[in-house]
Structure formats: structure tokens, C-alpha cells
Amino acid sequence: SRSIDLAVIPGDGIGQEVVAEGLKVLSAVLPQDVKLETKEYDFGARRYHATGDTLTDADLEQLKRHDAILLGAIGDPSVPSGVLERGFLLKLRFAFDHHVNLRPSKLLPGVATPLAGQPEIDFIVVREGTEGPYTGNGGTIRKGTPHEVATEVSVNTAFGVERVVRDAFERAQARPRKKLTLVHKNNVLTFAGHLWTGIFNKVAEEYPEVTTDYIHVDAATIYLVTDPGRFDVIVTDNLFGDIITDLAAAVSGGIGVAASGNINPSREFPSMFEPVHGSAPDIAGQGKADPTATVLSVALLLRHLGYDTEADRIEQAVSADLAERGALPARSTSEIGDALAVRVAG
Amino acid sequence: SRSIDLAVIPGDGIGQEVVAEGLKVLSAVLPQDVKLETKEYDFGARRYHATGDTLTDADLEQLKRHDAILLGAIGDPSVPSGVLERGFLLKLRFAFDHHVNLRPSKLLPGVATPLAGQPEIDFIVVREGTEGPYTGNGGTIRKGTPHEVATEVSVNTAFGVERVVRDAFERAQARPRKKLTLVHKNNVLTFAGHLWTGIFNKVAEEYPEVTTDYIHVDAATIYLVTDPGRFDVIVTDNLFGDIITDLAAAVSGGIGVAASGNINPSREFPSMFEPVHGSAPDIAGQGKADPTATVLSVALLLRHLGYDTEADRIEQAVSADLAERGALPARSTSEIGDALAVRVAG
Ligand SMILES: CC(C)[C@H](C(=O)O)[C@@H](O)C(=O)O
Ligand SMILES: CC(C)[C@H](C(=O)O)[C@@H](O)C(=O)O
């Protein structure tokens, strides 16, 4: 008999509320014969204030044993900027080698977009997750003086770039349009740009069916608002991926519906799935948060573990629910979760 | 009697066409008593192919003598990516210490935007122009091997950050809304982020009338499409500024109308004014390019040199022209230039 052993990290702010709905829908969609085990972890602002810890070696040992991780949101204004981001979120991505940061963008029927004319949007971004300017390399001298110098070093390796580029080609190959766009800034960041572009072009030779192109990151933001339909799969570096996926989420229905996976394709470590939105402390605890992004992250999680049918059912339920939203009065976090649970079970 | 001694760099692609119209409007707007002298320079792809040079020390000596520089566009597919960007555009910005890269975004009446609901947009971005990941620091080891490592170093100094932050506060102070937003990614790029945020907060104390806030660059792209009206003045680093100003141009009428100034506020070296768009080789030589961005760059140039009345006249002419465009048949590059020249003279 099958089983899923899940680490659950509700985290801060609305994280608690949305994760509860994600688990509700997960339980509802799984067939009887699949045993679901969950273990909750208390990472985030409260743990940090209580103990000063964000994520210890012992924590990582425990997390490692699970099949996958579901995360709500981490971050709170009471903690200095960077402490939880570097100390928990990025530490986990690096420790578990989450080098494929997968972020789909699909504008579903009935969903509002800030763009005029309701364009067709259906692409995925494969963001590198363990290199680039996110490595924490760099430093500061003469801190706090008029002669302070602070550096940030973007580190890019052939090993790291090639594996994520290959992953993106595989995903492009599996999609009907088979189109892959490299987004970088190779006219200015020439060292990293040369590495990315060279590897991209080399791997492309192995995928003759995949159409490829290249766009500078600044121009990519223009296309995302003027012609988002041109994108099918995008592969890009860690920082550019961070920036364009927030924009991609905004144009395809908002961060209320944007899901993401921090994936270790080799399965050496568990992958982590989380909504793109943050902890939104201003609306926390009020039942106002939209759990849809978390529910869609559960679908990505199921697909990663091989439960494609169940992932499809969740995505269909979300589509149907969103299509009807305009006609319904506003619902609370748990009402949306209930409605989705009913749909996936039905 | 007054005079303007201008270096003119038409450059590549549509650069030639749009600069001709910029000069046409400049001549038309200047009062009789102002003597306009122009000297044309042949930088760009042709010069590079003919001589292998992009910008020599002797060139810089010559350019230095002018009051200001008007540039069309530099870049051609026949030149490897990075050669003209690093060898000319960035070399000039660094050599002449153009640390204030000024990019206004205003959605004028009658101008199409990809955003629904025709929002009000009127802000300026003050992008740092001489530091950050644009310094060319970094390098490559084991090039072309499976063990290649490429680094890009973002260099940030208290000196460089403080002067651009001060410039932005001055500009915010002079605008009716008096609001300044710092855009960075201080939760991940903690070394540079700490420097930027610390200096921003320190300088803010000297400008009690200016309202300030901070937004991560990823979230800034969301606001630029969902609530662009929230911005008045933005100050940001070189790379973030590059990215968000292309998006800002896209939502406020497109790069056909986006102007920019590469400014040395100390006037130690001439400042350079250019449209944000590139050389667009696909439409070059066909009279299809919109010269409006160049004409608006001429207005920025005039304002920099103290010709505020003339700058206002150009901006009013452009507003009036754009407001009528929807009702007119499509016009060529020079027809638009002619129309603007008539308006500013009248
Ligand atoms: C919170 C932050 C560390 C994170 C990132 O920059 O990757 C977030 O913006 C994201 O996109 O997941
Ligand atoms: C062409 C390139 C070097 C330049 C930049 O990145 O600054 C351009 O994109 C711009 O914004 O002026």
C-alpha cells in the first residue's frame, strides 16, 4: 500500500490558515489506499524569538526523512529583514539542493488580470535555485563609515547551470508548444551570461524539436505585459527568476493563485512546495487569505510524487472554482478550502 | 549670448532616424539668441567593424568638451552581445561618471497601455548608474569546461549610494507628492541591502517632508502593474533600475515614448540623453520608428542645461501630439518630427 509522509511548515502570518486548507484538499483528493502522514514543524518568527534558531542541523536531519515538505509562509515584521529569509528559506533550498524552482503561470478563465484584453497566458518558469546572487557570497568592509564597500557575488557554475537548463529542456519537450526561452542579461553580465548562453545553446542541440530563443531580463518584463502568450517555458537564473515570477504571478491572476515547487529532481532530498505569496501579516488570522496558491502547490507536490491523476483533479477543481468566483459573494479562507475539498472528492 | 555645444551620436539601426527628428525639434524650440552647435560622432557597429574600436581615450577627450550628448541607439546583431554595451554604452557612463540615470514614466492622455482601466501613472526612477553588478567585476575560470565557474560582483560603496540617494531625495522634495520609494532586495542581498537601506534611512532624516517607503524589487514589479499610481520617485540600484524601468516604460505607453538621462549632476563631464529603446534593426531605415522618446530625451537635456521653458514646450507638444494620435492615420518618423517641430515653434 502507498503512503505519503509529509513535513508541514505552516510558518508565519497567513501561512497557518492557508496550509490548513491545503491539507484539507490533500486529504480529500487522496484515494483510500494512500496513507497520509503529516508532521508539523514550528519554524518561523515565533521559534526564532523563543530560541534564536531558524533551522538547525538537527532540524535538517528530521526534515530529510520526509517524502516532501509543504510550507505556508515565513516572515514577520518583528524579525529583521534577511534573518528568516537567509536563515530558513534559503538555507533549506541550499541544504536540500532545490535547484529547480518551478513556477507555473496560467491565467484561468474568469480570473482577473491587470492586463487589458484578457490575454492567453500559460507558461512555466524554471528558476535556478542554488546559485547566482543568492549564494550569500560577498561582504562588507568599513561598515557604517563613509568608506563602506559592500559586495554581492553571483556564483554560476557549469554544473549548476547545465542541470537546470536540462530540466527546462525536458519540460519544454513534454509540452505541446515545445518552446524554451532563456532569460538573462548577457550583454552586461558577460561572464555569467557567456556561461548560461553557451550551455543553453549546447544542450539545445540535443533537443531539435524544441524551439529556443533568448531575451534580456529587462525586455522580458515588457513582453510579460504586452505579449505574455509568447512564452511557453522560461529558464533563468535565481535572481531574474525571483523578479519575473512575481510579475508573471501578477499578470496571471495575482499571487493569490501562484504556486511554486523547490524541487530536487534527483530525490536525494525532499522537495518543498509553497505559495509564492508571503506571510501577509496585515490580513493574518482574519480568514481573508486565499488558500488557492497553497492548494495548487499541493498539486505540484502530488505531481512530483507521481500522483498525476490527483494533481489533475486539484487543478480542475481550482479552475472550476475560480470560474465561478465572480458570481459568488466573497468567501473566507476555510470556505474556499471546503469548496475545493468537495470538488476534488466528488 | 547663449550657446549649446552638442555631441550627437546617432549610432545604429533606428538611431539615425530618431536623432534627426530630435535635432529638428531642438532647433525649432530654441530661441534665436541661442547658438546651437552640433558635432556628429560615428560610434556603433559600423565603426567597430571598420576599426575594431568602440570608444577610445581620444574619443573621450573630444566628447568631454561638449555641453551634453544626444544618443540614438547603439547595438547591432552583427556584433557579439556585450561588445558595444560594455565597450561603448557602459564605458561612457562610467568614464563620465553618469551616476544618476533618470527615467521618467508618465502615462499621457490618449496613450495606449497594456494595463486595464487606464491608471494614472506619473513617477520617475532614479537609477544608480556607476555601481552594482554593472561594474564588470568578476570573471571566469576553466572557461568552456564542465568545471567552469563564472562570477559577477556587485560593488556598492557608501560614496556611490549616498550621492544617488541624495539626488533622489532632492527630486522627491521638489515634486508635489514628495514621496520616495527605495527598491532593493535587502532580504537576500543583505550586504548591499544593508548599505542601501542604512544610507536611505539616514538621509531621510534630512528630508522630513518626504514620505519614504521600501519595496523589494520582485514586489515592485507587481505594484507596477497593479497599482503604478503608488509611485512618485523611486531610487534603486543599477540592475534593478534597468529591469523596472523597462517595465515602467511598457505600462506607461511603451518604449516608443520612454526617455532617459545619464546625468553627472556635478557637471564635471557632459551628461548623455537617450531614448530607452534600442536600435531595433528589424525596422531600421523604414521611417517606422517613433521619434517621441528621443524628442522627450531632448527635453531632459534642455532641462539639465537650464532651458526649463523650452523643455516644458517640448513636453506639452508631445502630450498634445499623443492625445491626437488615435484619430490620425499612421505617420512616418519624420512626419511625427515635423509635427512636433511645428508645435514647439508655434
Ligand atoms: C523571501 C525570499 C527569500 C524569496 C526569494 O527571493 O526567493 C521569495 O521572494 C521567493 O520568490 O520565494
Ligand atoms: C544596453 C544596456 C547596456 C542598457 C543597460 O542595461 O543599462 C540598456 O538596457 C539600458 O537600460 O539603457
From TrEMBL, chains A, B:
Pfam hit, one: Iso_dh
Binding site for Mg(2+): D218, D242, D246
Domain Isopropylmalate dehydrogenase-like span(s) in chain numbering: 5-340
Cofactor note: Binds 1 Mg(2+) or Mn(2+) ion per subunit.
Coiled-coil region list: none
Catalytic reaction annotation: (2R,3S)-3-isopropylmalate + NAD(+) = 4-methyl-2-oxopentanoate + CO2 + NADH
Protein keywords: Amino-acid biosynthesis, Branched-chain amino acid biosynthesis, Cytoplasm, Leucine biosynthesis, Magnesium, Manganese, Metal-binding, NAD, Oxidoreductase
Residues noted as binding NAD(+) in the record, renumbered to the chain: G278, S279, A280, P281, D282, I283, A284, G285, Q286, G287, K288, A289, D290
Residues that span the membrane, as ranges: none
Quaternary state and interactors: Homodimer.
Protein name: 3-isopropylmalate dehydrogenase
Organism per entry: Streptomyces composti
Protein's gene: leuB
